[in-house]
UniProtKB/TrEMBL annotation:
Keywords: Cell membrane, Glycosyltransferase, Membrane, Transferase. Residues 11-130 form the Glycosyltransferase 2-like domain. Pfam families: Glycos_transf_2. This is Glycosyl transferase. The keyword Glycosyltransferase applies. Coiled coil: none annotated. InterPro entries: Glyco_trans_2-like, Nucleotide-diphossugar_trans, Trfase_2_rSAM/seldom_assoc. CDD domains: GT_2_like_a. Gene3D superfamilies: Spore Coat Polysaccharide Biosynthesis Protein SpsA, Chain A. It comes from Massilia glaciei.
Length: 232
């Protein structure tokens, strides 16, 4: 399954858990790309709301996957058929023509993977600053986060071992592995993601928490330990 692409240029994999409030908007935005031959796979981690039934009408397939974002994305990748894989959070909307932008960037730059810049929507005036810092940090380090809609050539994804089965920082770890294969294609076009995580817990508190967790991970702290800190 890893090598059978059946002429599908791009598979978009959306991990989902109880996203009934927003999954329709995310998937409807993908309809023009589906019309151009892009495959959309939703990997549901056991939603208890009506997320799965909403998604079923707007995706090529909805699969049941073990709960956990990394596990769900890996399950979606294993079920996909695209030559390039894009991992899209359920509360994130891609820019128009994202499929063409991705394929063009990978081909023109000879890259194995890449990501978009991000825009964070919400009430706080700090969210544009957060987004700008995320985009700048990513360009400087060559590390991407899941909010930036990471995309990767299928062969490179599986050769890098897919997402590690860890509860946090799976995007950072995959970035590290892929960075050894090529620098990322950093697309200036922006995905739009929800600011709910920052606004629910407090923008400044979340900024400090996420930066401190990444720093601790960089210095060797385990993902399980960091997840306990994050959940508190």
């Amino acid at each position: 399954m890893h090598t059978k692409t059946h002429n599908i240029p791009l598979s978009i994999i959306v991990p989902m858990l109880n996203e009934a409030a927003g999954i329709e908007q995310t998937l409807r935005a993908l309809a023009p790309m589906r019309a151009r031959g892009v495959e959309v796979i939703v990997a549901d981690g056991g939603s208890s709301d009506c997320s799965a039934s909403i998604a079923a009408a707007l995706a090529d397939v909805v699969i049941d996957a073990p709960r956990g974002r990394a596990k769900q994305m890996n399950a979606g990748a294993a079920a996909s058929r695209g030559a390039v894989l894009l991992f899209l959070h359920a509360d994130t909307v891609l820019p128009d023509q994202a499929d063409g932008l991705i394929l063009q960037a990978l081909a023109a730059q000879g890259r194995a993977w890449g990501r978009f810049d991000v825009r964070i929507c919400g009430r706080s005036r700090m969210l544009p600053v957060v987004a700008a810092l995320m985009n700048m940090r990513s360009r400087l380090t060559g590390i991407a986060t899941g909010d930036q809609a990471m995309f990767v050539r299928r062969a490179n994804f599986f050769a890098a071992g897919a997402f590690p089965a860890q509860p946090l920082m799976e995007d950072i770890e995959l970035s590290r592995r892929l960075k050894a294969r090529s620098a990322p294609a950093c697309l200036a076009q922006r995905v739009t993601t929800s600011g709910r995580r920052w606004e629910t817990k407090g923008v400044w508190r979340t900024i400090f928490l996420m930066w401190s967790l990444r720093l601790r991970y960089w210095f060797g702290a385990g993902a399980d330990t960091l997840e306990r800190v994050y959940r508190r």
